[in-house]
Structure formats: structure tokens, C-alpha cells
């Protein structure tokens, strides 16, 4: 069932948990995510990145997205993740997405504000909510790779939030997208300070591979949306490799598809329980 991003995040903040935000790249991954949410009675944010949508076919994703939301028994936020193409973000607003993320975090502060304001104005016409990023979470995000340009500046987060009227704010506090190469050092003091000065719910990107205890500490300090992509991609890929290795003569996509759904579901359930969003609906 359809729900609002901000409503879910504010409820999570009040009750001390985080809503899991999972990326899907194909039908099996989406099914695994939604089954995990239903089995654990958790609200869920089902996200598709711009390049994943292009891979699946943007029109197909619009149609599938509506069907996912309508046919799931727990609240689902359908979220357009890391939008770079303004026209595509606008189309997502017009085609059933609950919320959209503009990623102009590599632009100057002024341009990021201006572009975010443009998306907010468009999104509001369709009752769609907006997430935007201040500071830059580096690493590998889909087909883009970039260095982590530094942590979010606290004053910039406050100013950006005031000037943009967004519904969720993504901050850069030490995580990176993709598989970690170095040690993860989450900047808990920055999360704490931003949370004390900004009412808008805070989002952590690049959360795969981060110890669950660190994520739980971040939740206590005010993070309410936690983005997970790579951990599900790896669960999916490992399940497929295993299946094909143990079924040398196998060829039926429905059989290895089942293994894929199950693996993604199990990984999503681990995150849901760690974030405390189970039994919240
Ligand atoms: P990971 O792939 O590192 O989990 O990051 C996902 C993400 O932040 C999507 O927006």
C-alpha cells in the first residue's frame, strides 16, 4: 500500500528506528525486498536508481512500480534514487513515484539549492516528496564513480534545509557507495549536530558493508532512512552463482530466480531487524 516518505520517516524518528531503503535492479530483487517487508511487518522504501530504471526500461519501471505499491500489504514508498537527469526525475513525479531524489551534490551550493528548488516546485504539483543531498557521498553508485569529496558541513546543511523545503536530507558522514576498500569511520558527531539543528529527516547513503552496530548508533543519533544497494546485489549474485554451480544442467529461469528472491529476502530481513522497523505496521 502507498504511504508518504516523510510520514514514515517522522514516525521512525519518534519511535527510534530507521526505515530501510533498498535498491532493486530486476523483478527478483524487488520481490525479495517486498516479501521481506511483508514477512517482518515493516514499512519499506523501494528504490530504483536512474541507471537501473534505464536498464529495466523506464516505462516498464513506471508500470511495475505502481503494481508493487498496490499489491503489497505493508506501506511502500516508491522512490526514484540518485536522479541526475532533471527530465527523468520530473517524469517519475508524473508516473506514480511517491518520492524522488535529486543528486546535485557535486554542484556548487547555490546550484544545488536552485536545482533542488526546481524539483520541489514540480514534485509538489503531483503530491510527490523530495530528498536531496548536501555534501557528497562518493564511491561507486551504479555507473558513476567518484571520490568522497568530504563530509557535510553543518552550517551548509542547516542553510540548505531552510532554503529548499525538502522532505528528507541526505548527508555525507563517512560512508561510500559500493564495496568498501578501506576502514569505515562514521562521523557520529556530525550526525548528532545536524540532527539537533535540522528537523527534516536525515538519510544515510552507501550503508552496505557498514557494521550493523554502527548503523544502530547512527539511528540513535537521528538517521531515519538507511540506503542499502550493494549488500542485496551481492546476495543476489552469490545465490545465482551457487545455484548454477550446483545445478550444472539447470536452465529454467524460474528455478534460479527463486534462489535469487530468497537470498535477497533473507538479506533484507537481516537489515530490517537491525534497523528495528519490524512489527511497526
Ligand atoms: P550501497 O550500494 O553502498 O549500499 O549504497 C546504496 C545507496 O546509497 C543508494 O542510494
UniProtKB/TrEMBL annotation:
PROSITE patterns: ALDOLASE_CLASS_II_1, ALDOLASE_CLASS_II_2
An example molecular function term from Gene Ontology annotations: zinc ion binding
Binding site for Zn(2+) 2: 103, 133
Record bears the keyword Zinc: yes
GO annotation, biological process: carbohydrate metabolic process
Pfam families: F_bP_aldolase
Cofactor: binding details: Binds 2 Zn(2+) ions per subunit. One is catalytic and the other provides a structural contribution.
Residues the record marks as active site: 81
Alphabetic keyword roster: Metal-binding, Zinc
Residues at which Zn(2+) 1 binds: 82, 177, 205
Binding site for dihydroxyacetone phosphate: 178, 206-208, 227-230
Cofactor: Zn(2+)
Name of the protein in question: Tagatose 1,6-diphosphate aldolase GatY/KbaY
Source organism of the structure: Spiroplasma alleghenense
Gene: gatY
Amino acid at each position: 500500500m502507498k504511504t508518504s516518505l516523510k510520514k514514515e520517516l517522522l514516525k521512525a524518528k519518534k519511535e527510534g528506528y530507521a526505515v530501510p531503503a533498498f535498491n532493486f535492479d530486476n523483478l527478483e530483487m524487488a520481490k525479495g525486498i517486498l516479501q521481506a517487508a511483508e514477512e517482518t511487518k515493516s514499512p519499506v522504501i523501494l528504490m530504483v536508481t536512474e541507471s537501473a530504471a534505464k536498464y529495466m526500461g523506464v516505462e516498464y519501471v513506471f508500470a511495475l512500480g505502481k503494481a508493487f505499491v498496490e499489491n503489497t500489504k505493508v506501506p511502500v514508498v516508491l522512490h526514484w534514487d540518485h536522479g541526475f537527469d532533471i527530465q527523468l526525475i520530473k517524469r517519475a513525479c508524473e508516473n506514480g513515484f511517491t518520492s524522488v531524489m535529486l543528486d546535485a551534490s557535486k554542484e556548487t551550493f547555490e546550484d544545488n539549492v536552485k536545482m533542488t528548488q526546481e524539483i520541489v516546485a514540480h514534485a509538489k504539483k503531483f503530491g510527490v516528496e523530495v530528498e536531496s543531498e548536501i555534501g557528497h557521498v562518493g564511491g561507486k553508485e551504479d555507473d558513476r564513480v567518484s571520490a568522497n569529496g568530504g563530509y557535510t558541513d553543518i552550517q551548509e546543511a542547516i542553510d540548505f534545509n531552510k532554503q529548499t523545503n525538502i522532505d528528507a536530507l541526505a548527508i555525507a558522514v563517512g560512508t561510500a557507495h559500493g564495496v568498501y576498500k578501506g576502514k569505515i569511520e562514521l562521523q557520529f558527531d556530525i550526525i548528532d549536530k545536524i540532527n539537533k539543528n535540522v528537523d527534516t529527516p536525515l538519510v544515510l547513503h552507501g550503508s552496505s558493508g557498514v557494521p550493523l552496530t554502527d548503523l544502530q548508533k547512527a539511528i540513535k543519533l537521528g538517521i531515519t532512512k538507511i540506503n542499502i544497494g550493494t549488500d542485496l546485489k551481492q546476495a543476489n549474485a552469490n545465490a545465482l552463482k551457487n545455484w548454477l554451480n550446483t545445478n550444472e544442467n539447470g536452465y529454467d529461469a524460474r528455478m534460479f530466480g527463486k534462489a535469487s528472491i530468497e537470498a535477497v529476502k533473507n538479506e533484507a530481513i537481516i537489515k530490517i531487524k537491525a534497523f528495528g522497523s519490524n512489527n511497526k505496521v
